Amino acid sequence: MKTTINFYEFELWFKRHRPNNFSRVGLQGLFDYLEDYEDDTGESIEFDPIALCCEYTEFDDMYDFHCQYEPEEYPDLDTLRDYTEVIELGNEAFIIQNF
After folding, report:
1. Could you give the CA distance from residue 61 to residue 47 in angstroms, rounded to a whole number?
2. Cα(46)–Cα(68) distance, rounded to whole angstroms?
3. Across the strands, what pairs with 59?
4. Which of 2, 16, 39, 92 is found 20 to 30 A from 79 (Cα to Cα)?
5. β-pair type (94-97, 56-59)
6. Number of separate domains in the chain
7. Is residue 1 part of a domain?
8. 16 within some domain
């Protein structure tokens, strides 16, 4: 049994249960990315918010990213795209699929 959720329900769940995982802009970017994935593949994604928190991480900018990953190995977003999925959020913020 599946239920389709909209962005409001998606955002509300994260605000109530995991308010520090993603910004509002990050949630919108992740939601849009997942909807596009469903449209492109024809596959439905089960809403598993804990898995999303484990699978994706939001960063404010490359400096924030480099606090956890080696700058020499991943100097910019183009290089990072060779290793994982990158969801750009505008300004310098982005979400990666953890690898």
Report:
1. 27
2. 29
3. 94
4. 39
5. antiparallel
6. 1
7. no
8. yes
Query: In terms of residue numbers, what domain contains 85?
Result: 7-97
Closest CA to 45 of 4, 15, 14, 11: 4
Residue 2 located in a structural domain? no
In a domain, 73, yes or no: yes
Instruction: Tell me, yes or no, if the pTM score tops 0.90.
Output: yes
pLDDT tens figures, 6-46? 999 999 999 999 999 999 999 999 999 999 999 999 999 99
Q: Which two tokens stand for residue 54?
A: 């484990």
**Is-contact 30 22, C-beta < 8 A?**
yes
Nearest CA among 74, 30, 69, 35 for reference residue 53:
30
pLDDT digits (tens, 9 = 90+) for 43-88: 999 999 999 999 999 999 999 999 999 999 999 999 999 999 999 9
